[in-house]
Amino acid sequence: MAISPLPQPVAVESPLGVIAGRRALRKKIDNTFLIGIPFAGSVACLFWFRTHPIHAVEVITFAVGYFIIGMGTGIGFHRYFSHKSFETPAWVAYLLGAAGSMSFQSSLLTWVSDHRRHHAQTDHCGDAHSPVVDGHCAETETLHGLFHAHIGWMFDDTVTDRNIYGLDLARDPIIRFYAGTHYVWPVLSLALPAAIGYAFGGAADAWGCVLAACLRTMLFQHSVWAVNSFGHTFGYQNYKMKNRSMNNTFLAVLTFGDGYHNNHHRYPRSAFHGLLKGELDLNGILITGLGKLGLARKIIFADHYLGEKAPMGGEESLDGRGFSGAVEDQRN
Q1: Cα angle at 163 between 133 and 32, to 5 degrees?
Q2: Where are the beta strands (DSSP E) in the chain?
Q3: Does some domain include residue 108?
């Protein structure tokens, strides 16, 4: 597995789209709970199942829950809301928003704004989560940079300026709905498994399902964050870019295809991230399936599906339907 070289960050006096203040404090408080609750539940899970048997209901709710929040994040938050890789009826978009909102990440509005900023400034000054440069444009050492890109950025004193990266999002009724109900969905993410566990096994299985839900949430959270950190450090590149995005097969398995990060940065709006033979992209396959059911239309693919053909080197181009393209489409 190769380690990508470090490009030189582009230093500017003030990072584009980065602000601080009370919103940064709120970000820290929100993330303390959103990260702390699944972590605490995961630790408790280890002790719980030392004295309680693991039943099928806990295994099933764990696996189904991981799949739901994974699809909600990868297909919903990422490919639909952030990049508009396809169009879908409103009721499907609401379901995708609900599933992603149950993953104990930031609100849909914050997630999309942060991701747009990442694409606009990838691995350069202003990137929300880069292992190369921190929120204040300081170059980071390898281990410090990995920590910052993985989880440290969620507790620094910067936030994404929505006037730059999310102004159009405030006009989207679905995104407004999930921004306003942001705290409801993490509760449901634990309450639904608890209800299922209680229905099929009583109080003990209800607690078991809750703790298993905390564990699957924590595992998925770190899988997504690892794309920010390890996905910009370890792996292979199909395209030579002005950033250090990498394809990482292990992360692609954990995130249902979002680990092919180098491919994604080359074709940000493509509904498929896996482009070569062997790059299995379950998110892309499911979007194609939605298309066959009539629930997804105008599905965007890379300029050409590569199959077994080795790709040519290329540069990431924001005017080639990246961040700016997504904004333009939502404004029109």
Answers
A1: 55
A2: 2-3, 18-19, 159-160, 234-235
A3: yes
Does residue 11 lie within any of the structural domains?
A: no
Question: Which pLDDT does position 14 carry in this prediction?
Answer: 60
Beta bridge partners of 133: 139
What residues contact 99, with CB distance under 8 A and at least 6 apart?
68, 69, 71, 72, 73, 76
Q: What pLDDT does 142 receive?
A: 82
For residue 152, pLDDT over 60 is answered with yes
Question: 159-181: per-residue pLDDT in tens?
Answer: 998 888 888 898 899 999 999 99
Is residue 290 within 8 A of residue 92, CB to CB? The reply is yes
Structure tokens at 18: 């980065």
Q: Residue 312 corresponds to which tokens in the numbers above?
A: 């040519």
- In the three-class reduction of DSSP (H, G, I as helix; E, B as strand; rest coil), residue 133 is classed as strand
Domain count, the chain: 1
- Written as one string, the DSSP assignment of 211-273 is HHHHHHHHHHHHHHHHHHHGGGTEEB-SS--SS---B-HHHHHHTTTTTBHHHHHHSTT-S--
Return the SS3 of 65. helix
In a domain? residue 8: no
pLDDT in tens, 235-246: 999 998 889 999
| Residue-range definition of the domain harbouring residue 167 | 17-331
**Which stretches within the chain are classed as H helix?**
22-51, 56-71, 90-101, 108-120, 142-150, 162-165, 173-180, 184-201, 203-229, 249-254, 261-266, 282-292, 323-331
Distance (Å) of CA 285 to CA 67, 289, 299: 14, 6, 12
321 vs 270: CA distance, rounded Å: 9
SS3 320: coil
Return the SS3 of 160. strand
**Crossing angle, helix 184-201 and helix 56-71, to 10 degrees?**
160
> What number of CA atoms fall less than 13 Å from residue 51's CA on the CB side?
6
- List, in order, residues 6 or more apart from 253 with CB less than 8 Å away: 259, 280
Say if CB 102 and CB 159 are below 8 A apart: no
Contacts of 203 (CB under 8 A, 6+ apart): none
Judge whether 271 lies within some domain. yes
Q: Which of 210, 222, 209, 211 is CA-nearest to residue 47?
A: 211
